[in-house]
Amino acid sequence: MPVPEAVAETRHPRTEREGATGASDALAPVPVDENQLPLPGLPFTAPAPPPPPPVAPPVAPAAAPPAESTPAGTVPPGATRTPLDRALGLVLAAPLTALTDLPSFDTSAMDGWVVAGPGPWDVRGAGILAGHDLSMRLADGEAAAIATGARIPPDTTAVIRSEHGHLDDKGRLHPLRDVAHGQDIRPRGQECRSGDLLLPAGGIVTPAVLGLAAAAGYDELVVVPRLRVEVLVLGDELLTSGRPRDGLIRDALGPMLPHWLRALGVEVTAVRRLGDDAKALLKAVRKSTADLVVTTGGTASGPVDHVHPTLSAVGAELLVDGVTVRPGHPMLLARLKEGQHLVGLPGNPLAAVSGLLTLAEPLLRELSGRAAAHPEPYSAPLHTPVHGHPRDTRLVPVVVRQDEESGHDWAVPLRYNGPAMLRGIAAADALAVVPPGGATEGQEVEILDLPWSWGPR
Fold first, then answer.
1. What does the alpha-carbon distance between residue 54 and residue 38 come to, in Å, rounded to a whole number?
2. Distance CA 344, CA 327 (A)
């Protein structure tokens, strides 16, 4: 399998980006705290965003046959049929088509009376409830009480809401406003017809999708199974509890990565701490049955960096061996065998996060068929200048703030952005992509949202 396109782009990051600056005396300075870089003396105005690209009118796809009529052997390769109660968060591997009309019969949209012909109407003694068999037929001039969701008798005119009708002392129903033919009746097939495309393949199964699938007649969905990921934490210097001491440091990646990976929609099968043991790493990689193995540390060429020798020993195909991005330049991607990959993250925490977002996340998205969170990249101007690497792109934690007057967003860089630091990324809601040589105040830079994006917008 070729390197996924989204991942291949990581190997050759863009090194030149267009910038834009501007100034406005009317713009109030951005409020900052001690985590943020010092603000410049003069405020600035964020440049107006470029107009959106023209969007071609959607082409209605042909309706697919109902899933239940599709033989089990035609389920796409790698997909599986999963009961609704276990499908949340998975990716649709086949289009979701309606198995029935929705609604499947004419129903009342309101509590009130169903009427036939012109009024006033004689009200029948028996009412109509939702979920009950309907044997009643109304003649012109007759009405019956009806509940929301109940089936409408054939050849009836409309539903009159409870608050829009009045019963006289003889039990006859009089309307309190004009009655339109078909009012407050949900006709059969109003939402969809059997065979209509409801959702295309590739969408995430959300709670609303589960409800729609159930309403459309599904008991199970054809989905891409959750990818299985194993995390191997390397390094003799790592502690699993207590305070750093005697040259030892706390392992920050072991507690962080599994939850981050789960947020990307995968199943983390194991987190193993192997130290700097070459034999243990080789054994773990050879025995792993996960779809993706993620290692932390050991990707450089030092005396205890064992990832490259391990990949050679197992005959892996090295797809990405270092990138021109700081932090995170020693990250790597390898194919261990057909259907199994390894992502090697640097050992420094922020560098590992960089590799997770720019290498592991696009790979997982490609393998699982998930759509990108932001199909089109977006940018924002920097509120302060940022120093750059002479040759490589930098990823800098930022908070994205909005100017109340102009409504434009800008990116406020955070101070603690070294490769071993987590303080900046913990307060951030995005990473700014800073080109080689740095970026000036007000210059437009690409923004990579973090999964939670909890900062003020």
1. 39
2. 14
φ, ψ for residue 351, nearest 5 deg: -65, -40
Could you read off the pLDDT of 33-83 as tens digits, one per residue? 444 443 333 333 333 434 443 333 333 333 334 444 333 346 787 788 999
- 195-220 b/e (C-beta count within 10 Å ≥ 16 → b): bbebbebebbbeeebbebbebbbbeb
Q: Rounded to two decimals, what is the model's pTM?
A: 0.69
- CA 90, distance to chain mean position in Å, is 11
Sign of CA dihedral 332, 337, 338, 340: negative
Q: Flag whether pLDDT at 5 surpasses 70.
A: no
Separation of alpha carbons 43 and 380, rounded Å:
15
Q: Which helix (H) or strand (E) segment is 393 a member of?
A: strand 393-402
pLDDT reported for residue 30: 39
Name the nearest CA neighbour of 224 among 94, 335, 340. Answer: 94
Residue 433 CA to residue 59 CA, distance in Å, equals: 35
CA angle 370, 427, 429 (to 5 degrees): 30
Q: Is 427 helix (H, G, I), strand (E, B) or coil?
A: helix
**258-269 per-position pLDDT tens digit:** 998 988 889 999
Q: How far apart are CA 350 and CA 428, in angstroms?
A: 12
Nearest to 173 by CA among 195, 191, 146: 146
For residue 236, give every residue at least 6 positions away whose Cβ sits within 8 Å of its Cβ, in sequence order, or none: 275, 276, 304
Query: Rounded to an integer, what distance in angstroms lies between the CA atom of residue 86 and that of residue 428?
Result: 33
Over the stretch 345-389, which tens digit does the pLDDT of each residue have?
999 999 999 999 999 999 998 888 776 655 567 899 999 999 999
User: Whose CA is closest to 161, among 179, 181, 135, 137?
Assistant: 179
**What would the two tokens of residue 357 be?**
């977002």
Contacts of 416 (CB under 8 A, 6+ apart): 35, 397, 423, 424
3-class DSSP state for residue 319? strand
Give yes or no for a contact between 144 and 124, defined as CB atoms under 8 angstroms apart.
Answer: yes
Are 183 and 158 contacting, i.e. CB atoms less than 8 angstroms apart?
yes
Sequence-distant (≥ 6) Cβ neighbours of residue 334 within 8 angstroms: 311, 316, 317, 318, 319, 341, 342, 344
Contact status, residue 380 vs residue 27, Cβ threshold 8 Å: no
